[in-house]
Amino acid sequence: MHCTKKITSDMTWVGADDRRLAFFEGVYGVPNGVSYNSYLICDEKTILFDTVDKAVAHNFFDNVAYALDGRKLDYLVISHMEPDHAATIEDIALRYPEATIICNAKIQAMLGRFFPTDLSGRIQLVKEGDTLSTGRHVFTFVMAPMVHWPEVMMTYDTTDKILFSADAFGSFGALNGRIFADEVDFMHDWLDEARRYYTNIVGKYGAQVQAVLRKAAALEINYVCPLHSFVWRRDFGAFLEKYLKWSSYEPEEKGVMIAYASVYGHTENAANILAAKLSDRGVKVQMYDTSVTASSFILSDAFKYSHLVFAATTYNAGMFSTMEHLLHEITEHNLQKRKIALIENGSWAPMSGKLMRELLSTLKGVEFVGETLTVNSALTEGQLGDLDALADELAKSVAE
Ligand code: FEO
Question: Where are the transmembrane segments (predicted)?
Answer without folding.
Answer: none
